[in-house]
Amino acid sequence: MQSRRIGDVEVSAIGLGGMPMSIEGRPDEARSLATLHAALDAGVTLIDTADAYHRDAHEVGHNETLIAKALASHDRGGDVLVATKGGHLRPGDGSWTLNGSPAYLKEACEASLRRLGVEAIGLYQFHRPDPKVPYAESVGAIRDLLDEGKIRMAGISNANPDQIRQANEILGGRLVSVQNQFSPAFRSSEPELELCDELGIAFLPWSPLGGITRASELGSTFGPFARIAEDHGVSPQRVCLAWMLAKSPLVVPIPGSSRPETILDSLAATELELSAAELAELDGV
Question: What are the helix (H) ranges across the chain?
Fold first, then answer.
């Protein structure tokens, strides 16, 4: 498995997004654990989660608890950087709400610490800006958690370029990651990706294959991905991740998965080399 860096930590070039294992349509726990263990067996050392990755109101942190169980039952569990997030909530009716208040973020971090069973969270990310709370106050809470040793590294998610610069300043140059949506269908985060490359900050594309329900349609929707995949004898999804990896050595995709075979196919993208002409064609889609 090839590696990249988030802050001062070396991680697998592709991580695993845990959300599909905990929200609506999730599989049974046995399949989720098999998926997580397959990823660990293949060399994954980055797993992304959030306290909001759950389905019902009474099970906040379902995905964090699941991941903690998988890591505790695998001999490579201690090698994994777990990235979790706070500031997003799910009331249990299928909706998503926001709470970026410093008090809430600190409470959420404490709860995540307990569920993950760690003394300090490897990477803690402010999940999404809350229009009701000044961004500086929310990021200030993340800075406090970092200074207090509750988290080892700090990141932000769903941020624009101005917010990236502001967060890095508030954190005293210690912002290590930005997690934004980015895929063939969602290219509007290109400026954030380029800024992260300029600043030396890891860029973690979420839903890199288009999301849980659309990943299987990638090849039919974006023809060049399917054609290049056929030329190489691989899946369009693998081509998509290889294309992302080629954009910058600071890009670390985190495709979500709930089946061992899909995460293993995604991980194989690290071995797929695309030509300059192929990359240019995909950039033009």
Answer: 29-41, 62-72, 102-116, 135-147, 161-170, 190-199, 218-221, 223-232, 236-247, 260-267, 276-283
